Amino acid sequence: MKLSAPADCKAILNELFDQSIAIIATYQINPERSTSCGDECWQVSALSPACAAVYGHSADELIADQALWRSRLHPADRQANQTAIDRSLQADGLPVTCDYRVHHPNGSLRWLRESLTFRRSAVEGWIATGIAVEITDCNRLNSIRTDAIVQLEAQLAAERERYQLAMAALERLNSELEANVVDRTRQLQQSEARLQHLLNGAITTSIFSCFLFADRTWKYDTISVGCEGVFGYSAAAVVADPTLWSARVVSEDMEAIILPAIDRLLAEETVTIEYRFHHLNDSIRWIEVVYTSRRDEAADCWRVVGVSTDITDRKRLEVDRQRAQLDLQAQKDFLQRVIDFVPGCVFVKDRQGVLQVANLATAELYGTKIEDLLGKCITEFTSHLSPAQRQQFEAEDWQVIQTGQPLVKQDRIPTAQGQDRWYQVTLKPFVDPQGRVQGVIGNSIDITDRQLTELALQQSEERFRQLAETIQDVFWLSSPSGDQVLYVSSMFEQIWGCSCAALHEFPTLWYTAISSRRSPRHRNRPSPASQRL
């Protein structure tokens, strides 16, 4: 950039131009410009090196490729700023200040505030000189402040409304409640204290910048007013005593968290940490802070920006959640121990057949462990079953889910070890609190021993029946009281002349038959009563 000044002044100005943290630019405006050409009538003729941090491109790149410079400007800001500049030029080049956004190659948006002055050249037309500073953090702070103000206004309105209601009630009941004036005053003071607490605690974020040096020391540059809300100390107190903050950090966290984070900042990393801090009110607060750092070679330090947030309430919720999870796990473990004690199989399957609950007996049936069963489809463990059995079990599960009705059955099921066992199986729908069927609850009891006993009893009864039928005499069994016939052989019909069914219906029929007709054949035979067991 050419400067008409003595050599030493020119050098100083050039150094200021190169070292300025603001973006200094010179633009040439086409003398034939019209409203239709827009920002294409503008040509950047000079840019200070500071533009690289905002645009993501060097000044030489942007000057060499005017389209590149224009592509970085946010489209929504072009028309508004162009309109303001047009009015300025129409007013003979009055200075104007514009806010606009720039697309950085890393995907972020950077806000700039540029002050423009204009001078007219007979040859080159209008020439604009701009000084732009980045206001991204400022806008972010304004957004945070605006949100906080909105919240405060809403809270204040709510408190005022409650206060007005309380005062109206107090006025209506004043004549009857004079004795309670002290109590009402106390309640009002508590309400005001709550309001003040809300006002004081509304800002829960502290933003600061500092200069970090290689020996791990630092010097504060700026601290936002939220400092007092987060740490309990005012920004002025923290700046006045550089050791105040570090002295109030819990010592274990200073060694384990803060100092390693400082080392990462010296490497220009973005760091997020959580640590504990002794608040002014003697409580220990959890703080989350996000640091960013940038090396400043000229100042031989690192410029660090941090955003600190009080996350104590969130930490308490996390602790409560962890305790609840531990309690839930304890309940699950207790339930698991209970169902493991049950000798039969106990299981819960969802609608897809995935096991959600299983006890030890179920795992043993399938030859595996409980932890290997849970979360897997039961079909992964039924390879020892026949295809027909697998289809049957799936169909029965789906029947229970679809109908919502329980199913009780007996099945002969081979175990994973190849043994056939009999099971009494009960399937019921698994219903959630909203009444929706989410799967099947099952209980299978091994009844193999009972089945074998019943089979042996049936075989014994069959042998007894065959023996009784071959005896030529009448053989019968009755209850001890004699009022019920339990069994009678077929010879009864031949000897007594009555059907066996009639004797079952009328147990005293044999006696009536003896009384009505006693043949020699009958008299020579023993009484049936003598053959009761």
Word description of this protein:
By secondary structure, the chain is α+β, with helices and mostly antiparallel strands. It folds into five domains: 128 residues, 2-Layer Sandwich (Beta-Lactamase); 63 residues; 106 residues, PAS domain (Beta-Lactamase), CATH 3.30.450.20; 110 residues, Beta-Lactamase; 61 residues, Beta-Lactamase, CATH 3.30.450.20. 45% of the residues lie in helices and 26% in strands. The chain has 20 helices and 17 strands.
Describe the secondary structure blueprint for this structure:
Blueprint: H1 7-19, E1 23-29, E2 42-47, H2 51-55, H3 59-64, H4 66-72, H5 75-90, E3 96-103, E4 109-121, E5 125-134, H6 136-172, H7 181-201, E6 205-212, E7 218-223, H8 226-231, H9 235-240, H10 244-248, H11 251-266, E8 271-278, E9 284-296, E10 301-310, H12 312-341, E11 345-350, E12 355-358, H13 360-365, H14 370-373, H15 387-403, E13 407-414, E14 420-431, E15 437-446, H16 448-470, E16 476-478, E17 485-488, H17 491-496, H18 500-505, H19 509-516, H20 520-523
Helix pairs in contact: 6-7
